[in-house]
Amino acid sequence: MIHRLSKIKKMKKNNFFLVLSALLCFGFFDTVTAQCPNCTIALPVGIPADTILIDSLIPAYKNAYYEEGISYRLPYTTDPLAAVAPPGTNVPLGVSIDDFTILSVTGLPPGLTWTGDRPAPMVYDEAAPQTRDGCITLCGIPGASGTFNINVNLGIRIAGFVVPSPPIPLEFIVFPDTNASFLLDTSGGCAPFGAVITNLIPSNGNAGFSYAWDFGNGMTSIAENPDTVWYNFNMTSDTVVAITQQVIIDTFPYLLESIVVAADPGNSCNDDVGFPPFVVAGAPDMYMIMIGHGDTINTDPNFALIGNTQNNEYPRDTMVFPGPIELGAGQMYSLEIWDDDTAVPFGTDDPCGSGPVTFSAALGVGVHTLTSGSMTIEITLSHYIDTINYVDSVRVQYCNVSVDQIKNVERSLSIYPNPTSDAVNIQFQLNGGSKDVDLVLSDVLGRTLYTEQMKNFNGTYNQPLDLSREANGVYILHLRVGSDVISRKIVLQK
After folding, report:
1. CATH 3.40.50.2300 at 182-252+387-397, yes or no
2. 291-298, long-range: CB within 8 Å, 24+ apart, which pairs?
3. What is the pLDDT of residues 286-300, one digit of tens each?
4. Counting CB atoms within 10 angstroms of each CB, which of 88, 231, 424, 493 has the fewest?
5. pTM of the model
């Protein structure tokens, strides 16, 4: 299904590279996102072969399953690029584009994966009359909300040469979870009354969760599961009180997003041929070896550096690897840059710099500089922290209970046997109109052990209360009728 299809030619010029990056980044994770359904290319009939066309991307919602297919067409020549290039950009007309290639993608929201229409890295090199059509499926359950800045590294090859292309940012929006993060057992009642809160985002004993509550009655808490909250306002009218919760979830791992060889003034890594003074400079074919936790994470020479620093083809060399690498907590990692000489007769691979550099997630979020001899390497680490805010409310009601009603309840209140060895029977009468009644049992420290709420109660109450699981001691029974409270001691002696 195509959603809001629009030709890029009709878009504002300064939006082109943002849209192009959205198009190109989606296919890179084909090898790691097999759980997404395969996509089906669905483009309008009759569109030009040499054009740029792309579906628009629908935002996701946190904690809700997301699955969206996107279809697109890429051009043969630079003409469509020139038509939408930003002002001041010199794009020659009529030049054939050999191919487009996805090199790497960083900054993806946690929990989302991609499946493309061809193996990674996705190369679009079809020649006319075939069209350069493709599609991707984005699927998964986003684990964090917000606006995510996805950096796309792409290659455009013209006349056999890779055209320099800096990382292109793409904004992907994940809206907050619309579901409640806590529940109240009541919508309100006559003050004083208690509200029991059920937290729907439990830590389950895992570290990385923190909670902040504001109950709107002057009390706050940082407990995961707060005790019953009491509302004892002295007032003459109903009041709506907001209860707010903030949950901070810091459980996502640190990610290695990118590796860049920033400089190598000492020319420690090269493919020079000959002996001084007859030396022909050669460009090294760099790749990385990263070892951590006793395992080699990446030794594939195909995950090579783009260009090289020695002949100034590019000012900075960006390492290409398929997606962010998860870093284990407390683990040290060793990173080496090598020159691949397997294509050179009798050649062997050479290490660059002065040897391995080490790092860990303890460096924290940001760009960090590592030095190996004359070689300067920059690594970028990211880390997601999710913040959830939710608000609910209770209505604290002003309930005027007559003096006669309270006196009648107090006279009729009977608790027996008292002292008791296991249970007591509680009996009272409320006549002359329905009222909200709360029955609360607490210990001498004020901790609530039992609560029973009766809405619009009228008549006779006669029920047992089991105390067999409690320890010997003195307990307080509070009977709240409207805004009045009647308290009695209960002695438990087994």
Report:
1. no
2. 291/333, 291/334, 291/336, 291/356, 292/327, 292/328, 292/331, 292/332, 292/333, 292/334, 293/328, 293/331, 297/325, 297/333, 298/325
3. 777 788 766 665 544
4. 88
5. 0.54
